[in-house]
Amino acid sequence: MSANPITIDKIILHKLVMSLKDPFETSFGTFQDKEFFIVEMIDKDGFTGFGESVAFSSPWYTEETVKTNEHMMVDFLIPLLLKEPIEHPDEVSKRFQIIRRNPMAKSALEGAVWDLYAKRKGWSLAKVLGGTRSQIDVGISIGIQPSVRSLLQVVERYVLEGYKRMKIKIKPGWDVEVLKEVRREFPTIQLMADANSAYTLEDIHHLKKLDDLNLMMIEQPLGHDDIVDHAKLQAAIETPICLDESINSFDDARRAIELGSCKIINVKIGRVGGLTESKKIHDYCKLQGVDVWCGGMLEAGVGRAHNIALTSLDQFTLPGDTAASERYWDQDIIEPAVTVENGIIHVPEKPGIGYEVNRKVLESFRVDKITVSNE
Ligand SMILES: O=C(O)CCC(=O)C1=CC=C[C@@H](O)[C@@H]1C(=O)O
Ligand SMILES: [Mg+2]
């Protein structure tokens, strides 16, 4: 038993609904309101850690939803956390192994344990994760726009704001020609496309046209749960494939790399089940020479803070999707808000996630609250 294991006293699940500044459209559809949980975890010594769930209200991205997250956390995962003290946050994913899948529910709770652990040590979350960077390069993800003209205006705005990489959502009918226009207008920017599984192997010849556009990568062109067809596509095109939805665990990443299904991985803490699993993927990709970057799930400030800490690890070699709070929210739930200067975010050095939760603002967006005490 370590000198000071974590004994959780209380877990509060704050259910929030926040309205995005601009509607977010992908190949799946459009949404404006983000419903999610902020996990507040208080231990017997009075330390408080925060996590954030990233599942959407409907199962369009993966099978998880806000409702399944609530069910899994309250009925299965929290009881596993409360049953005995926690020596180290790496234990959490082991304890959760008896529960199948549900990575986003697991990650929301595990993230709060990591924040609590860092605060108890007096270290930043980046430091306890093994981060080496004091600042990180960030890019931005741009949803499908109503016209090419408005897309070019949005790209220009973010290029002027200094974002290091532009991610453009594509789908059949809004892809090669649109990207050609962006590349013509911005010949030197770091440019990538995210297809969110909108294509099949029948589109190989069409997707091959992307090779003329000097893209950094094409993200998740094929099936959300595929690595075999992606290997065939990667063998047929020059543009590096990046996997997002297909990678839900360390083993998924290992198998995809072994098969040659991708050359880059978009690591999302919630999608893979937490920070411990994210670190395992990061460490394996470092050994294999596979670039990784940190994807986004339109998080509020707590999730954004976790993404910043993870991105400080050295194999996060490519700009991620962790843009500034103001890109998403009129008012974020953390202080200070996450800011980006010339495409750079400074990694907080304060203990834990490095940002304070503004309780007044959090409560202004709260629609439900579930408290579980450790009897
Ligand atoms: O948080 C951000 O700004 C990135 C958002 C983003 O690009 C995505 C969020 C969720 C699902 C997808 O549509 C897409 C992605 O695939 O990364
Ligand atoms: Mg993606």
Automatic annotation (TrEMBL):
Keyword terms: Lyase, Magnesium, Menaquinone biosynthesis, Metal-binding
Pathway where it operates: Quinol/quinone metabolism; menaquinone biosynthesis; Quinol/quinone metabolism; 1,4-dihydroxy-2-naphthoate biosynthesis; 1,4-dihydroxy-2-naphthoate from chorismate: step 4/7
Active-site residues, Swiss-Prot/TrEMBL: K169 (proton donor), K268 (proton acceptor)
Pfam families (UniProt xref): MR_MLE_C, MR_MLE_N
Catalytic activity reported: (1R,6R)-6-hydroxy-2-succinyl-cyclohexa-2,4-diene-1-carboxylate = 2-succinylbenzoate + H2O
Superkingdom, natural source: Bacteria
Full protein name: o-succinylbenzoate synthase
Domain Mandelate racemase/muconate lactonizing enzyme C-terminal: 148-240
Reported function: Converts 2-succinyl-6-hydroxy-2,4-cyclohexadiene-1-carboxylate (SHCHC) to 2-succinylbenzoate (OSB).
EC number assigned by the record: 4.2.1.113
Cofactor(s) for this UniProt protein: a divalent metal cation
SUPFAM superfamilies assigned to the protein according to its UniProt record, in alphabetical order: Enolase C-terminal domain-like, Enolase N-terminal domain-like
Residues noted as binding Mg(2+) in the record, renumbered to the chain: D194, E219, D244
Enzyme class: lyase
Homology family: Belongs to the mandelate racemase/muconate lactonizing enzyme family. MenC type 2 subfamily.
Classification via PANTHER family: O-SUCCINYLBENZOATE SYNTHASE, O-SUCCINYLBENZOATE SYNTHASE-RELATED
Name of the gene encoding the protein in the UniProt record: menC
UniProt GO molecular function: O-succinylbenzoate synthase activity
